[in-house]
Amino acid sequence: MTVQQHGCISLHLSHDRPYIEIEIRTASGYIRKARFLVDTGGGALIFTEALVQDLELPIEDELLTLFGKHIFRRFGPPRLFVGPCELDMTQVSALMAVGTCSLFPGEAVDGILPGFLLSRYCVLLDYSTGTFSLSPSCLTAMRGEPVPISFHPLSGFPCVEVTIAGEQYGLLLDTAASCTMLSEAVVETWARQFPAWPRARCAVGTANMGAPDEEHATMMRIPRMTVGSVLLRHVTVVSHPIRAFEMRRFDVLAAPIVGGLAGNVLKQFRIEIDYAHAMSYWEWCDESYPYDMDLVGLTLSLNADSTYRVAAISDCNYACVRQSVCVGDRLLQVDGLRVTGLSLSRVVDALRGSPGQRYTLLLEREGELRSVSVATARIV
C-alpha cells in the first residue's frame, strides 16, 4: 500500500470520467450521500441547486456569471467526507449552479470536487480496480513510473509535460474531460506536417463531451507520445478553440499549456498524485483497445426534452450514414434501445461496434419518423 488510505472509496467511470460518492453532513445533523465528479482541472466546488435546496443551505443573494453563460450563487459548504476522511474546508467557498438538477447532460451528477481541494492531499485514482483514495501525505514508496507535475497553489491545476514528434508541450491533467484535448492551432500544424496521421471532422464518441462548437472540431490519432518515461500509443485527441488553452490566465496555471490529458488515456493507469512533492506516479493497469473510435460517428447534442439531436456527421462514416442521417435529426432509438433520457455515455456505447457492424436507427425529421440502416466505421 503506497497511500495511507484515510479516505478510500469506490470510483465509477462514465464517459471516461471518474465519479465518487461523497457523504455530506449539515449543521442541522442531516446526512446524505451525493455523486460528485472528480475534476483535477476544476476551479470551483460546485453543487447543483437541487442538492443545495435538499440540504437547506443558506445562499447568498449575488448572482455570478462564469464561463460565459452559467449562473451561480455562493453558499457556505457543509462538511464533506470521502469515506471516513473529512475534507479540509478551510477558506473554501462553494458555488451553486442555478436551476440545475445535474451538472452533466443525461448524468446524475450532484457536484464537482475540484483541483484546489484535491491538492491538499495525496490522491490515488486506480481506474483498474475502481478505487479512489485521499491521504494527508504519501509516506512510503510509490508505485509506477514517476512523472513530475507543476501546479499553481491557488488552483491546484496539475500540469505535465508530454513529448510528441520531438517537441515538448504542457498539458493539464484533466480527469473531468473524457477525451484528450489540444489547441486547434497545434492540431492544424500537425495535419500539415504529418498528413498520414488519421483525422476526422467533428467530435464523436468520447470526444463528444457536450461542449460548444464540437461540430467544428477535428479529431486526430497520434501514433505515440511520452509522458515522462511513460510511452502512450495511438492516442485520440480532439481540437478545441485556441482561447481554451493558450489564453488561460497564468494566475491559475504554473506553466503554459496547449491542452488537457484526459480520461481516454488516464483510464489505462493507476495514478497517484503527490501534490506536496510535485510528482505523480503512473502504473499501467490496462492497455485499452487502441481503436476507441469504431462507431457510428455522430456528434450528439442534448435537447431540453432529453432527446438527442444530430449536430454533425463525421466525414469518416460509411456512405450509408452520410446519406441516411441529416444534421438536425432527432435520434430516438438504436436497434430498439430508446435513447431519450439516457446518458450520453450510454448512447455513444450503443453506437459502438466493429467496423461494418450494422445498426438500425430510429430518427425523427420534421415530424416524420424514419428507420435507417447504418454501419460503424473506424473514424480515426
From TrEMBL:
Annotated PDZ domain residues: 296-366
Superkingdom of source: Bacteria
Name assigned to this protein: PDZ domain-containing protein
Lineage, top ranks: Bacteria, Bacillati, Chloroflexota, Ktedonobacteria, Ktedonobacterales
